[in-house]
Design a protein that fits this description.
Elements (H helix, E strand, L loop, with lengths): L2 E2 L1 H9 L6 H7 L1 E2 L3 E7 H8 L5 E6 L2 E7 L2 E5 L2 E5 L2 E6 L5 E5 L5 E7 L6 H4 L16 E3 L2 H18 L6 H17 L13 H14 L16 H8 L3 H12 L3 H19 L4 H7 L5 H12 L3 H6 L1
Parallel strand pairs: 1-4
Antiparallel strand pairs: 2-3, 3-10, 4-9, 5-8, 5-10, 6-7, 6-9, 8-11
Length: 310
């Protein structure tokens, strides 16, 4: 499993069939604003003569896709069949594969880097938003009416990116946030509450600290924090208070959330890398392979080797 950059994304999609690749990439990129671009799926299929198959990889950019067509999406350890209309929110944290099941595909998608949605520009840290967390649903099936509402936002984005308006990127960020908030209202997300009190703030800080350790991209990378106590110490609060807050906000204890995230990463590494079990165990903070195997079996009801083979 590799990590795809925004530049590699253009090569992956257009290959040598589309002469507009460099124009697309250079026109919408800037050191000060990061990178943003939007695409019409039907037009891309026509221009580049092929279905938009996205191989199973991690990516360094964010992507929001409005989908109209029959597709299969594999992400983390899940597979979702999109029968007709859906919206997908992809972040660098979760690897995924997107496979169209027929040629009749339409809709829109936009891609952007973290720099484009930098907190100093939007007053909001995109990495703390529920829609891009590992607990989100990633893909949301939507109705015809919901599709039209979201399509209208994409049409505004498409018009604006071609304009000469001096502040168009500020406006485009607002449209992206409109897409994100529309997505977050489509279906309740576990643990999503108004972030105006101490409990929700501590919960957000914990999740941010947890996610900083992922993804594991090298056998030389190792988790630095493994226990509830270690997280509490980093947040400068008592471990009992952290447990109480997370139970209140998410319905789960600190340890349960940590175990779930480590298990999720273990599944990805077992499924998508050729690293041996010992290397994966060390990366995930286990001193002994036996300890990792026992942990994994309790969480998944299968040994790491059995999970990989199956």
């Amino acid at each position: 499993m590799t990590t795809i950059s925004i530049n590699e994304f253009y090569k992956e999609i257009f290959k040598d069939k589309c002469p507009l690749t460099e124009l697309f990439f250079n026109e919408q990129s800037n050191e000060d604003i990061g990178h943003f671009n939007v695409f019409n799926i039907a037009e891309m299929n026509s221009t580049c003569k092929g279905k938009l198959v996205m191989p199973y990889n991690r990516r360094t950019y964010y992507k929001i896709s409005l989908i109209n067509g029959h597709n299969i999406v594999d992400y983390a350890d899940k597979q979702i069949e999109i029968k007709q209309k859906a919206i997908l929110f992809a972040s660098p944290r979760i690897p995924y594969r997107y496979t169209p099941q027929n040629e009749n595909q339409s809709g829109y998608f936009c891609v952007f880097t973290a720099d484009f949605m930098d907190i100093s520009k939007t007053a909001l840290n995109i990495d703390t938003l529920p829609i891009f967390s590992n607990q989100s649903d990633f893909v949301y099936q939507i109705s015809d009416e919901q599709y039209e509402t979201i399509e209208h936002i994409f049409l505004k984005i498409n018009d604006e990116i071609q304009s000469d308006y001096a502040f168009k990127y500020d406006l485009l960020r607002n449209y992206v946030m409109e897409l994100i908030h529309t997505g977050q209202k489509l279906k309740p997300i576990e643990g999503q509450k108004e972030n105006h009190n101490a409990s929700s703030r501590i919960s957000s800080l914990f999740i941010e600290l947890l996610e900083r350790q992922f993804p594991i991209e090298s056998i030389n990378q190792e988790l630095q924090l493994r226990t509830a106590k270690e997280y509490a110490e980093n947040l400068r609060i008592h471990v009992n208070h952290l447990n109480k807050v997370l139970k209140e906000v998410t319905g789960k204890t600190t340890t349960e959330i940590i175990k779930h995230r480590i298990t999720q990463e273990a599944k990805i590494l077992l499924k998508q890398t050729d690293w041996n079990i010992s290397e994966i165990a060390i990366c995930l903070g286990f001193d002994e392979v036996a300890h990792f195997s026992n942990f994994f079996k309790k969480q998944v009801n299968s040994s790491p080797l059995q999970f990989r083979e199956n």
